[in-house]
Design brief:
mainly alpha; globular
């Protein structure tokens, strides 16, 4: 098995297991803490993403630099010095973030959140524990960037699977046996975040080539990477605005209970990234290497294979969830009230997330070339559209209106940004992306899911619904595989071996 295939398999297992832990335990978190307290978990995710802006593109830069430098043995000491230099900067940033969240905790609790069912003191303490958890968790993204750039993604996913299991199981045991409170939940999160980060740091340093010379902080190293890092930081800022600004605004416009329902729908839709991330993470270092050595034919082949694989993986699930949101939510939560409030939100969020996922390999191609301006300016344009649309849609349509805006924004990337990219990179390959990479798999999946929706027109038992949805998914997955030319050929070649 090639290294790329091993990395993809490992990434799928790691992300799949993390998704399983999330989907399995979220209903239990809500059962023990209540939907209002779970809304604070959504606040934590939003704050974590916002303060992640202070990453300044360091994680993405480390990923790219490890991929490039690993091709040249004379750069071994430079690799070690690069990690040490960026590591010290990253930990300083994380400490600042933790202190900042603790400092503004009273303002957030008192003047921003509508926590009518939680005391002000509980909310205040919960936000303080969020800050401490973030201070120890954020450096994990830095170390994971290094491991992925070195293509040590099997090792990385062993860490992810182990800590995700301990995190989920431990949280349930604490909520059940110790204290069913949001404070207990976040305290446990601090412990596991610390463990996860230090494991990633230890293994990254063991994965770096030995030189016999201690790694040291070198300010001159930053001169060679600051342009790319700054560009990635700008992209990160705009990406966070696009993905999190809706939640910031909704946390003010909606009650904490309704925000909890929006958070629940968002968590479920965002699990689609568990399929998106493995492919993108595995292919990005190799795309970077192909660009570095000038292998245009190999680059074109890998690009289309990656895009078609992305379509085959995410479109069957996304389309089926969009066609059957009530059935899936009822199977998951077993709560008709939750289904009533979240099904339509989930439908639009999953569509928007799928559109976002289809753009991940084209985005990785841009980064492989070091071209960051297109994504930055397109994100600026989308952010300008986002804010007024959220304020217009939410008062009239509530959380559903915000979910519709998510679809509109990601449609813009597919219909506007992608054609601009192909005018410069892989010229002449745009229509192959629209027709072969996405169009054919999407068409057959919609036909199968639509037929499945038409056939199930009366109430049946939960077990039969589960079996029925499983059959529809398997058929959609098989047919989308056959519809994607490069994936079809690969499957046939593997079968005939």
């Amino acid at each position: 098995m090639s290294q790329i295939k091993r990395n993809i398999v490992a990434n799928f297992f790691g992300n799949g297991w993390s998704a399983l832990m999330s989907l399995l335990f979220i209903p239990l978190y809500i059962h023990f803490m209540g939907i209002t307290a779970y809304g604070l978990v959504g606040i934590f995710a939003t704050l974590q993403t916002i303060f992640g802006l202070l990453d300044m593109g360091l994680s993405a830069t480390l990923n790219r630099e490890m991929a490039r430098l690993s091709l040249r043995s004379e750069k071994n000491q430079e690799m070690r010095n690069l990690v040490r230099t960026m590591e010290l900067i990253y930990w300083a940033i994380s400490a600042i973030i933790g202190i900042a969240v603790v400092a503004i905790a009273p303002l957030i609790a008192k003047h921003w959140l509508q926590t009518d069912k939680l005391s002000l003191e509980t909310t205040h303490k919960a936000i303080i524990t969020m800050g401490l958890a973030m201070a120890f968790q954020l450096p994990f993204s830095f170390y994971s960037g290094g491991l992925q750039g070195l293509q040590r993604q099997v090792l990385f996913n062993v860490i992810v699977v182990t800590t995700a299991t301990i995190r989920g199981v431990g949280a349930i045991l604490i909520l059940w046996l110790v204290s069913p409170t949001i404070l207990a939940f976040f305290t446990w999160h601090i412990v596991i975040s610390t463990l996860q980060t230090f494991l990633a740091a230890w293994f990254l340093w063991r994965s770096l080539p030995k030189t016999g010379i201690n790694a040291s902080f070198r300010i001159e190293i930053l001169r060679g990477i600051w342009r790319f890092s700054t560009s990635m930081s700008g992209i990160a800022v705009m990406s966070v605005l696009l993905s999190q600004l809706d939640k910031v605004i909704l946390s003010k416009l909606l009650t904490m209970e309704m925000f909890g329902y929006y958070t629940l729908s968002g968590m479920m839709a965002m699990n689609l990234y568990r399929l998106i991330g493995p492919v993108s993470s595995a292919l990005y270092p190799r795309l970077t290497q192909l660009v570095a050595i000038g292998d245009h034919d190999g680059l074109k082949q890998l690009y289309h294979q990656g895009c078609q694989l992305m379509s085959v993986l995410i479109l069957p699930i996304a389309v089926i969830v969009a066609f059957f949101p009530k059935e899936i939510l009822l199977l998951w939560t077993r709560n008709p009230t939750t289904v009533e409030y979240t099904s339509l939100i989930l439908r639009f969020l999953i569509i928007g997330t799928a559109l976002s996922g289809l753009g991940y390999i084209p985005y990785a191609l841009q980064l492989a070339y070091g071209w960051t301006t297109l994504t930055f300016y397109s994100n600026v344009g989308m952010a300008i559209i986002l804010v007024p649309f959220i304020f217009i849609m939410t008062p009239h349509y509530g959380a559903v209106g915000a979910a519709v805006v998510w679809v509109i924004l990601n449609s813009g990337y597919v219909l506007v940004v992608l054609p601009i990219m192909h005018r410069r990179l892989l010229q002449g390959e745009m229509w192959r992306w629209y027709v072969e990479d996405v169009g054919l798999p999407l068409t057959v999946v919609i036909m199968i899911a639509g037929l499945g929706r038409w056939l199930i027109n009366k109430p049946v038992s939960q077990l039969l619904v589960l079996i029925y949805l499983g059959i529809v998914y398997i058929i959609a997955l098989l047919m989308s595989t056959l519809a994607a030319p490069r994936i079809r050929v690969w499957v046939f070649n593997q079968t005939l071996k």
